Amino acid sequence: MLRATFLGTASARPTVRRNVSAIAVQREGSLFLFDCGEGTQRQMMRFGVGFTVEAIFVTHLHADHYLGITGLLRTMTLQDRTEPINIWGPPSSKEKLGLVVELGGDRIGFPVQVGELAPGEEISQDGYAIRAFQTRHTSDSMGFSLEEDRRLGRFDVDRAREMGVPEGPMFGALHRGDAVELPDGRVVRPNDVVGSPRPGRKLVYTGDTGPGQTVVDAAEGADLLIHESTFSLDEKERARRTGHSTAEDAARTAKQAGVRELVLTHVSARYSEQPEQLEKESRAIFRPSRVAHDGLVVQVPFRSEEDSAKPASRG
Question: What is the domain count for the chain?
Answer without folding.
Answer: 2
